[in-house]
């Protein structure tokens, strides 16, 4: 199933029901007063975040959402029923925007969080509201108001514990397949991953961690080069970044700097995100070269690990390090009350 991370959709809240013009018609009551009921309020269009969803695939098949209109008022002071709300379920991490201005209307980052995307119209008033001492038989009622209708845009940002970043063909997909049960496309050429891939890392007694393989970035990604900044937004919601480097590439240090710069140019706070430098493909790298690379990153006070995703060498220490970092982060959030 394809991963859909952007979609546009139309919402139409229910119109309010019309008020009623009616008068009492009872035996022995020759001059019965007005008794027209009010119209019912139109239903709202409500967007609700669901943790059970992980894609916007449903928006490929349905893009119009309409709430029920309110019923019209009736005689004998019978008010119209309120229109039923229309509920639109979206994955946690969805951002709702005004399609014309780009303004962010809602950021649904928690399970069960809701946003009213379209407010139903108020019902019209029945003729009793217009009765007065000088007009005891008002023959006027108001129509219901129109419900809000507009086009919106939804963007989905993955919420993951770990984000795998790096240049194309650095070995991220292979690493994801070894750390989880995910089965991403793996091939010996760049840009084999064209959409974010998710996997779940389960290790010992730790809580499971979600890993997101972010499609390969290149120099100028923040301006739209390569796959562009289409997937950079997903990195914002990962608590730990694993920068996967092809240790066998002679430009490994330059490659590291390229991705680091792209992240900082996209959003400065990403530069301060907890990060692990992962030297991959060590099975085809000389030990002396590997030691020099480790020393270089250690001098920069960076956590550096060496693995071979292909042969699974070094994966056990990587799992342990990842889970300890995530566990410590969660403990810090609890202690600070965030």
List keywords for this structure.
alpha/beta; 5-stranded mixed sheet; about 350 residues; 5 helices; 6-stranded mixed sheet; 2 domains; Rossmann fold; single chain; Spo0b-associated Gtp-binding Protein, Chain: A
Write a brief caption for the model:
With about 350 residues, the protein is an alpha/beta fold.
Helix and strand arrangement:
Blueprint: E1 6-12, E2 45-50, E3 64-66, E4 86-91, E5 94-98, E6 104-108, E7 114-118, E8 149-156, E9 160-165, H1 172-179, E10 197-201, E11 209-213, H2 232-235, E12 238-246, H3 252-266, E13 274-280, H4 287-299, E14 303-306, H5 315-336
Parallel strand pairs: 1-3, 2-4, 9-11, 9-12, 12-13, 13-14
Antiparallel strand pairs: 1-8, 2-7, 5-6, 5-8, 10-11
Describe the 3D structure.
The protein is of the alpha/beta class. The chain has two domains: 6-156, Distorted Sandwich (Spo0b-associated Gtp-binding Protein, Chain: A); 160-336, Rossmann fold (3-Layer(aba) Sandwich). 18% of the residues lie in helices and 24% in strands. The chain is built from five helices and 14 strands. The protein has helices spanning 172-179, 232-235, 252-266, 287-299, 315-336; strands spanning 6-12, 45-50, 64-66, 86-91, 94-98, 104-108, 114-118, 149-156, 160-165, 197-201, 209-213, 238-246, 274-280, 303-306. The strands form three sheets. Strands 10-11-9-12-13-14 form a six-stranded mixed sheet, with helices on both faces. Strand 12 (238-246), helix 3 (252-266) and strand 13 (274-280) form a beta-alpha-beta unit. The longest helix has 22 residues, at 315-336. It is rod-shaped, with a radius of gyration of 29 Å. The two termini are 35 Å apart. The relative contact order is 0.13. Mean pLDDT is 84; it is low at 184-194 and 220-228.
């Amino acid at each position: 199933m394809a991963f859909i991370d952007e979609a546009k959709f139309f919402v139409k809240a229910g119109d309010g029901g019309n008020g009623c013009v009616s008068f009492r018609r009872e035996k022995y009551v020759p001059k019965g007063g007005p008794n027209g009921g009010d119209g019912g309020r139109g239903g709202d269009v409500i967007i609700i975040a669901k943790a059970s969803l992980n894609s916007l695939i449903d928006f490929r098949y349905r893009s119009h959402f309409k709430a029920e209109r309110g019923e019209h008022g009736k005689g004998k002071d019978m008010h119209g029923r309120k229109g039923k709300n229309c509920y639109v379920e979206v994955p946690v991490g969805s951002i709702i925007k005004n399609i014309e201005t780009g303004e962010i209307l809602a950021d649904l980052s928690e399970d069960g969080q809701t946003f009213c995307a379209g407010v139903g119209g108020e019902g019209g008033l029945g003729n009793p509201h217009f009765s007065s001492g000088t007009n005891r038989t008002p023959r006027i009622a108001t129509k219901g108001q129109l419900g809000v209708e507009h086009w919106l845009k939804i963007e989905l940002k993955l919420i993951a514990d770990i984000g795998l970043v790096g240049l194309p063909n650095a070995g991220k997909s292979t690493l994801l397949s070894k750390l989880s049960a995910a089965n991403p496309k793996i091939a010996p050429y760049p840009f084999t991953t064209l959409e974010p891939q998710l996997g779940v890392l389960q290790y010992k007694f730790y809580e499971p961690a979600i890993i997101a393989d972010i499609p390969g970035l290149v120099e100028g990604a923040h301006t739209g080069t390569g796959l562009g900044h289409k997937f950079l937004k997903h990195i914002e919601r990962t608590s730990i970044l694993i920068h996967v480097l092809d240790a066998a590439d002679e430009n490994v240090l330059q490659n590291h700097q390229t991705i680091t710069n792209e992240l900082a140019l996209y959003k400065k706070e990403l530069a301060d995100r907890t990060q692990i430098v992962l030297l991959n493909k060590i099975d085809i790298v000389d030990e002396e070269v590997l030691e020099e690379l480790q020393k270089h990153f250690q001098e920069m006070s960076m956590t550096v690990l060496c693995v071979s995703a292909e042969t699974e060498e070094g994966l056990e220490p990587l799992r342990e390090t990842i889970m300890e970092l995530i566990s410590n982060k969660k403990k810090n959030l609890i202690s600070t009350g965030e």
